[in-house]
Specification:
Number of strands: 12
Order of helices and strands: HEEEHEEHEHEEHHEEHEEHHHH
Strand content: 15-25%
Radius of gyration: 24 Å
Oligomer: single chain
Bound molecules: iron/sulfur cluster
Distance between the termini: 54 Å
Structural class: alpha+beta
Helix content: 25-40%
């Protein structure tokens, strides 16, 4: 008979330490400095004098088996089997031997790009999109592919004033780092959820559905004696959170969904505070498979920034220096009423606790 102590489960990932490169394991937390040898190649030097080289390449995040096999074959050949994926979906090969850098880059260049270091555009961190998520207002992988096709020259070079971090999130829930990226594409719904009153009582728990709304826009009600909910459309911000909890409240709308563009965010570092993105373009249509409007809008912002920012100025810092009116002027983006934050219920309805007010 099995006992509790013998029970094995598959809960949780294996401990990361077993996957560390031996040089990283030996010098863990004892790094002296790093330098960028050329686009896509980093060298980290430890206190002990050990050096480990990193070759960074592009990956589309949703990768094919063939692509994964090619990467692992190259890792075995040049990097003692060690590679990792960064949070922005770059693939990094960890090399102990400097002589392997150029042969690895030559082979990688046959099927992907090497770069994403220093004053460049790194891969776009992104969410699930139409492939996986129920509440998406746009696609993620497709959008990322076409934007990076346009910007790949900024991935393989280091000619921008500073690094530019891009993000795509396919709805307001923002699983991607939209709030903290230099330029972000955010999928937007523009209509409230449609309530299927017939199915709702059978599919959804009403208290949970009411509680799912961050703006307190959902109220219990009854129609012809059947318990259901209603939505105060003035308070709805089209986030789709209720649909996550209640499948009888679909929000996707092919004719009205689209994308918005946000700029100026970044995470904090040792010297500066974090900055949050602000709205640049309130709506562009979903236009797959190449999303020309969204792609052009992002490229325009990158190029105006590249031309006007001072060295080592991030996008948000550049806008802060020149001012928002000048940003709209230089980029040619129209300033609209949607740029004014006039959500009049914010003070009273944003939830600050787990309590509900009716
Ligand atoms: S951002 Fe929204 S639609 Fe995209 S994966 Fe997250 S919850 Fe789903
Ligand atoms: S959860 Fe979001 S989409 Fe649903 S009613 Fe509330 S604000 Fe609107």
């Amino acid at each position: 008979m099995s006992t509790t102590t013998e029970r094995r489960t598959d809960i949780g990932p294996p401990h990361y330490e077993q996957f560390l490169h031996p040089i990283i394991k030996k010098n863990y937390g004892q790094w002296k400095y790093h330098e960028i040898l050329k686009p896509g190649v980093l060298a980290h030097t430890a206190e002990s004098g050990d050096v480990i080289y990193t070759v960074r390449a592009a990956s589309p995040r949703l990768i094919s088996t063939n692509f994964a096999r090619k990467l692992t074959a190259l890792a075995s050949k040049y990097a003692d089997g060690y590679l990792r994926f960064t949070s922005r979906n770059n693939v990094e090969f960890l090399l102990a031997n400097k002589d392997n850098i150029d042969p690895l880059i030559n082979e990688l260049s046959e099927f992907t790009l090497v770069g994403g270091t220093g004053k460049s555009i790194s891969n776009i961190v992104h969410t699930q999109g139409w492939v996986h998520c129920h509440s998406s207002a746009t696609d993620a992988s497709g959008l990322v592919k076409v934007v990076m096709d346009e910007l790949s020259d900024y991935f393989t070079s280091m000619k921008l004033p500073h690094k530019v971090r891009l993000a795509v999130a396919c709805c307001l829930n923002m699983c991607g780092a939209v709030h903290a990226s230099d330029i972000a594409i955010l999928g937007v719904h523009r209509t409230p959820p449609r309530i299927d009153h017939e199915s709702l009582p059978n599919l959804c728990e009403i208290p949970t559905t009411v509680a799912s709304c961050p703006n307190n826009a959902i109220r219990p009600t009854s129609i012809e004696g059947r318990a259901t909910v209603k939505v105060d459309e003035d308070k709805c911000m089209y986030c789709g959170n209720c649909y996550t909890v209640c499948p009888a409240m679909p929000i996707a709308d092919a004719l009205n969904d689209g994308v918005s563009i946000w700029v100026g965010g970044k995470i904090s570092n040792a010297r500066t505070e974090p900055m949050f993105t602000k709205l640049a373009v309130h709506y562009l249509p979903n236009n797959p498979p190449r999303w020309p409007e969204a792609t052009e809008a992002v490229k325009n912002i990158v190029e105006v920034y590249a031309k006007n920012a001072k060295p080592y100025e991030r996008v948000g810092e550049w806008i802060h220096r020149i001012g928002w009116p000048k940003f709209f002027d230089l980029t040619g983006i129209e300033f609209t009423k949607y740029h004014l934050d006039d959500f009049r219920h914010a003070g009273t309805t944003y939830k600050r606790s787990l309590q509900n007010r009716y």
